[in-house]
Amino acid sequence: THTTPDRLDCATCPNQSESKYWADLDTCRRPNVSRRLQKHQPSANVNADLKNAIALHQRGQLGEAEPAYRKILQTAPHHFDAQHLLGVLKHQQGRHDEAATLIAAALQQRPNEAVALANYGAVLNALRRFAETVASCDKAIALKPDHPESFNNRGVALKELGRTEEALASYDKAIALRPAYAEAFNNRGIALRELKRTADALVSYDQAIALRPNYAEAYNNRGVALIELKRFDDALTSYATAITLKRSYAEAYNNSGAALYLLKRDDEARACYDRAIAFDAHYADAHWNKAQLTLLQGDFVSGWADYEWRWKIASAAPVHDLPQPLWRGGGEIAGKTILLHSEQGLGDTIQFCRYASLVAERGARVILEVQSPLKRLMADLPGAAQVIATGEPRPHFDFHCPLLSLPLAFGTRLETIPPSCLRAPAASGEWTTIPERRPRVGLVWSGNPAHKRDQDRSILLRAMLPLLDSDATFVSLQKDVRDSDAILLKERSDILDLRDHLGDFADTAALISQLDLVISVDTSVAHLAGALGKPVWLLLNDVPDWRWLLGRDDSPWYPAARLFRQDATCDWGKVIARVHEALREFVASQR
């Protein structure tokens, strides 16, 4: 389950904070600005109209302020302040394209107005034009180095551009200029979380809340940090406060659902997702989180349909954004060419490539696009007429379908999951000399460190050492070994390390074909062993990925798999102890 992406302050979400706008509007009441208005406006009436519009705007009466600004623009179409402040108003209403047009027009009149440049940056952030935001804010800072909003808005853009260290420095500068800048503390917390400094992020959120006790968004983001610190009950309390402050806060309901999911309070989690969706019917994160809970519970009828909401999530890669029609099972495809393309991790591609043969049975010519490390492995996959790697030129095709939409296309239920048809290439090289006198057992203890739940899924090699007293030959299937494990692996003469011979997944598959058993955490190699029909023992954390379902020690996706789950203590030692006992029995049965 994924928590919703952090909701930033007014720099990108205008309905969440308004203090920035009032700071900018205050400049219109300063004496030097009033004199400037008199110089540039055609009459005193226009100046009076502007003061009235600003007063309405400051009171939050946007519906009344807008016609007041437009009245000025009817008399003076190029009035800087009316264009600029109407642009701010449209940004607050979520009409960001209109806001950009208005503020850009104002800047045509006065290109060196720092406040307008900063507000233009906020609008560009909302339009996800982050590089332009940085340029606009840099210009504002050059003109007005003591303008904290410019640094805050610049930080938002830098964070979205992946320049998180620079974003943090920009927020720090904003706070140095305005020590009571609650929004900057909130955004600083978001940057710190991105940098894996979660405890520091929590402190920053608390500082934001101390400055503004009714800051619902900071309470929500604080809850996200508490989840990462595994303080789930505290996270629920923080979300509850956010909801008390903002009754229709869909994001906080969604995140409450995520915390409840991790606490295995599934019915309550579903209720929270439903509340989030009730407040925002198009809230993709809540729909997708609900889909994963539904699939985890084995309800494929509802689950696959809701799973399509993943494409609406802001962070989703636009792999489905192709000019050719998207195929989800309807319509005739016989005689047509269809592109089936990977979309998530390597394990997902291995799990769902089985559908290629079903698509081919519909009479279509199948082009399978997979991640480069899988191309050679899947070159002769049944049903695939051609296999290409992601990024390679695509041949002509008439339709396309992401791999994880295929279960929906075929109406897959638990009892109709198609079998895997993946085959291992012929074994060659170093592993053909693995001794055969004892059972040969492959080990995988860690997965992709970039995975959002890596700390829940991966373990240290040291945790697996109790298994090594079994009468078996142990082979490491780790292609990438972390620094924390590399020294120990080098010291262990009882683990055969063949990573230098593992170029891609075809090599790993060939090695697995020579083994009797694979013991693995939840990672792509576990999927590979299962797809090849090799006995695989899967070590699962207490709240596993949806595909492993609940309350069972087998998998309908991989009949040769056996699942070893954590209990509520989340103690890997207990899991390893059960695996150890099962391994002794397995070795004895092989004699």
Brief account:
The protein is α/β, with parallel strands linked by helices. The chain is 51% helix and 8% strand.
What does this structure look like?
Helices cover 51% and strands 8% of the residues. It is α/β, with parallel strands linked by helices. The protein contains 27 helices and 10 strands. It starts with 18 loop residues before the first helix and ends with a helix. Helix 8 (130-143) packs antiparallel against helix 9 (148-160), helix 12 (198-211) packs antiparallel against helix 13 (216-228) and helix 19 (346-352) packs parallel to helix 26 (524-531). The radius of gyration is 29 Å and the shape is elongated. It has helices spanning 19-26, 31-40, 44-58, 62-75, 80-92, 96-109, 114-126, 130-143, 148-160, 164-177, 182-194, 198-211, 216-228, 232-245, 250-262, 266-279, 284-296, 300-307, 346-352, 356-361, 406-409, 454-457, 461-464, 483-491, 505-513, 524-531, 572-589; strands at 337-341, 365-370, 384-389, 399-402, 440-444, 473-476, 495-497, 517-521, 536-540, 561-565. The strands form 2 sheets. Strands 7-6-5-8-9-10 form a 6-stranded parallel sheet, sandwiched between helices.
Largest sheet: 6 strands, parallel
Strands, total number: 10
Record the strand order, biggest sheet. Answer: 7-6-5-8-9-10
Task: Output mean pLDDT.
Answer: 89
Low-confidence spans:
1-41
Fold topology:
Blueprint: H1 19-26, H2 31-40, H3 44-58, H4 62-75, H5 80-92, H6 96-109, H7 114-126, H8 130-143, H9 148-160, H10 164-177, H11 182-194, H12 198-211, H13 216-228, H14 232-245, H15 250-262, H16 266-279, H17 284-296, H18 300-307, E1 337-341, H19 346-352, H20 356-361, E2 365-370, E3 384-389, E4 399-402, H21 406-409, E5 440-444, H22 454-457, H23 461-464, E6 473-476, H24 483-491, E7 495-497, H25 505-513, E8 517-521, H26 524-531, E9 536-540, E10 561-565, H27 572-589
Parallel strand pairs: 1-2, 1-4, 2-3, 5-6, 5-8, 6-7, 8-9, 9-10
